[in-house]
Amino acid sequence: MNKILTPWSAACCFYILLGCNGSQQTNLDQKSSDTMNTSTNRGITLTQQTFGKYDQQDVTSYVLMNEKGMEVRIMNYGGTITNIFTKDSSGKTGDVVLGFDTFDGYLNKDNPYFGCLVGRYANRIAKGQFSLDGKTYKLAKNNNGNSLHGGLKGFDKVLWSATAVGDTSLQLKYTSKDEEEGYPGNLQVEILYTLTPNNELRIDYKATTDKATPVNLTNHAYFNLSAGADSTILGHQLLLDADRYTEVDKNLIPTGQLPAVKGTSMDFNSPRAIGMDIMKVAGGYDHNWVLNKKGLELKLAATLYHPGTGRYMEAYTTTPGIQFYSGNFLNGNLTGKGGQKYVQHAGMCLETQHFPDSPNQPSFPNTILKPGETYTQTTVYKFSTK
Ligand code: BGC
Fold first, then answer.
1. In whole angstroms, what separates CA 231 from the centre of its chain?
2. Annotated domain spans of the chain
3. How many CB atoms lie within 10 A of CB 109?
4. Among 11, 112, 253, 262, which is disulfide-ready with 204 (CB 3.0 to 4.6 Å)?
5. Looking at the domain 6-385, which fold is it?
6. How far is it, in rounded angstroms, from Cα 255 to Cα 106?
7. Do residues 325 and 286 touch, judged by C-beta distance below 8 A?
8. Whole-angstrom distance, CA of residue 9 vs CA of residue 276
9. Which atom of ligand 1 lies nearest, measured to the CA of 328?
10. Is there a contact between 289 and 353 (Cβ–Cβ < 8 Å)?
């Protein structure tokens, strides 16, 4: 596992460049009630509002805004991105992620991980078990006998403690206890959400442990760049900088094979409408693409374009893989923001991640974090129009 704090240090330099003072940290959780603590930094503001109650504690929505009119709302329940407002090519603002208008929506048992942080291990671990140093660990199973997205109560279903770092960033912390959902070791997790003046939402992930444990963290935002104009993402054009993907079985568990995408329905090396070949892929797209990269450098992994509104998004990441999930299991049963029915393919995820089931796949990049090491991950979603 990566011992160097490169992305995190880079983030800190970034704040310094922006003129933030990391030592002036404010614990936002200590404040209560509506819209307060407004301050500005290079045109970015961070405010907060009460959003609901969970476990008798306040759930707070933190609102980052920049001078270009981009606005990101994140709540401390699940570290969930609830809204991303960006402008289209005519200057009209719209919300480009799926979710609910009120907190209660997020507690719906059928909430398919809208916008949340995912951990301790994003994606699937086969049969909900893995062996480490001669010991077999049994995890909470929640998906066809497998463990998905951290188990029954993953990082998406806990309250994170929130702190403002300068005015551009929200830091979220969570301690995942030894044996939580079956995972070994007390894991200290820190997430930093940053909005930049250039319409970038940057997510820096960091974790340390006191026992060896698998770690794979991501965010599960469902994008629809039409902001409600199109009921599905099938007309969006996607590019994935990946020559291979991790082949899966019928339960979406990797077989260990990494087939080439060239000339197949999985080939997104040039921008292509998602709907073009989706019918040829059993169940729709729900696969991990193996990103073309040398190591853990921050590199462009994906672009997404909605021709109708001109909205364009680039995803940069340090991770070796990206899960493109085309919202296959949405079925119209969930009513989201503004009364929208979320039909199949209403939104899509670009989950930057390590490969699924890596703890059981010796040929995949290592996901075991050991005491003394620091897990890091950085992903940037950049919004513009063209
Ligand atoms: C997975 C899907 C799963 C979805 C849950 C995605 O990350 O790849 O298989 O159904 O999360 O909403």
1. 22
2. 6-385
3. 4
4. 11
5. Beta-galactosidase; Chain A, domain 5 (2.70.98)
6. 33
7. yes
8. 41
9. 10
10. no
DSSP letters for 139-190: PPP-BTTBEETTSTT-GGGSBPEEEEETTTEEEEEEEEPTTGGG--S-EEEE
Instruction: Dihedral sign for Cα 111, 117, 120, 122, please.
Output: positive
Q: Whose CA is nearest to atom 7 of ligand 1?
A: 123
**CA nearest ligand 1 atom 4, residue:** 112
Residue for token pair 């082949």: 247
pTM for the full predicted model: 0.91
The residue count for the chain: 386
pLDDT at 166: 85
List residues with catalytic annotation.
220, 351
What is the arithmetic mean of pLDDT over 122-149? 98
Burial annotation 132-157 (CB, 10 A radius, 16+ → b, else e): eeeeebebbbbbeebbbbbbeebbbb
Query: pLDDT for 224-241, tens place per residue?
Result: 999 999 999 999 999 999
DSSP 8-state class, residue 11? H
Atom of ligand 1 at shortest distance to CA of 112?
12
Q: How far is the CA of 254 from the centre of ligand 1 (A)?
A: 14
Q: Where are the alpha helices (DSSP H) in 320-386?
A: none
Cα 81–Cα 84–Cα 86 angle in degrees, nearest 5: 165
Angle at 278 between CA 277 and CA 284, to 5 degrees: 155
Taking the alpha carbons at both ends of the chain, their separation in whole angstroms is 38
Which tokens belong to 149? 């997205």
* 353 residue type, one letter: Q
21-73: pLDDT as tens digits: 333 333 333 333 333 444 556 799 999 999 999 999 999 999 999 999 999 99
- What is the pLDDT at residue 42? 78
- DSSP states of 61-94 as a string? EEEEE-TTS-EEEEETBTTEEEEEEEE-TTS-EE
Contact between 117 and 157 under an 8 Å Cβ cutoff? The reply is no
Per cent of the chain over pLDDT 90 is 88
Residue 205 has pLDDT above 80, yes or no: yes
Distance 386 CA to ligand 1 centre (A): 30
Pocket of ligand 1 (CB under 6 A): 112-113, 123, 252, 286, 323, 325, 329, 349, 351
CA of 302 to the centre of ligand 1 (A): 18
Residue with tokens 């707070």: 60
